[in-house]
Amino acid sequence: MRFAVNDAQLGLLDDTSSPDSAWRVRASERARRLAVRVLPGGLVEIVVPRGTRPRTVEQFVARHRRWIERTLDLYRPVTDASAEALPDQVVFPATGGQFKLHHTGSEGPVRLTANEGVIRIAGGTGRPALLRHALQRFAMREAHAALGPWLARLSAATGLTYQRVQIRRQRTRWGSCSPSGTISLNACLMFQPAPVVNYLLLHELAHTRHMNHSRRFWRLVERFEPGWRELDAALTRGWREVPYWALG
Q: For residue 162, what are the domain limits?
């Protein structure tokens, strides 16, 4: 493993033991100690205090390599497609939605339309990032249409109320609930099975009563979802079901 160091950042140049993963080392003014994060999609980020020596980073990575590799197995997408490739179809297990994808290959601005189970994308030839962003916006629209009403129905059924909901594309969280009652949901929930999504929504609604993971919190979750343990484990593995194009 080799590191390059300059005044602005530390960059991990080579990690031959993990050919399927992207590694980076980021120097931070705020960091007081070394830390490692594994992000969905297989990105490993080592955060270090500015001025850290490469040898120190190497030793840190060596100590944590077993944990990193185990966590990577949870976060690498099942499919082998790269982030640059467009899929042949887009499937949303949360709702059962399925769309075949057709790209005309023309130049010019990207235009996406979807109807009757078909997504058509025009323009964007040679601009994979723009095409990927168009698909991400489409997935976000589908998430807004599905997850907000779904949460409202569960709130009415359970009596667990919230103030507002927002749909985002968080990199490491499926959802969260603020002390003010705002529930944030990850649009990538659309790539999870419906029972898993239902559990996550109940989980966040339970946080409107208990802003922790105390016994009382889990008892409340179990009241509405007795099988929460299995569903929580499935959610932990769920990042593998999110396609590369949706993670950027």
A: 89-246
Report the domain count for the chain.
2
Q: Which residue has the higher pLDDT, 143 or 25?
A: 143
Residue 83 falls inside a structural domain: no
Per-residue pLDDT at 111 = 94
Separation of alpha carbons 44 and 8, rounded Å: 19
From the CA atom positions of the chain, what is the Rg in Å? 21
Say whether pLDDT at 160 is over 90.
yes
The 3-class SS string of 164-196 reads: EEEEECCCCCCEEECCCCEEEEEHHHHHCCHHH
Give pLDDT, residue 119.
96
Give first-to-last CA distance, the chain, whole Å.
26
User: What is the C-alpha to C-alpha distance for residues 147 and 195, in angstroms, rounded to an integer?
Assistant: 13
What is the DSSP secondary structure assignment for residue 210, as one 8-state letter?
A: -
Residue 234 lies in a domain: yes
Strand 43-49: give its sheet, edge to edge. Answer: 22-28, 43-49, 35-39
**pLDDT tens for each residue of 83-108:** 567 899 999 999 999 999 999 878 88
Q: Which residues pair with 24 in a beta bridge?
A: 45
The per-residue DSSP string of 111-143 comes to: EEEEETTEEEEES-TT-HHHHHHHHHHHHHHHH
Contacts of 103 (CB under 8 A, 6+ apart): 86, 120, 121, 122, 124, 131
Taking the C-alpha atoms of residue 211 and residue 160, their distance in angstroms, rounded to an integer, is 13
> Which neighbouring-strand residues pair with 186?
168
Does any domain span residue 80? no
Contact indicator for 42, 54 with CB cutoff of 8 Å: no
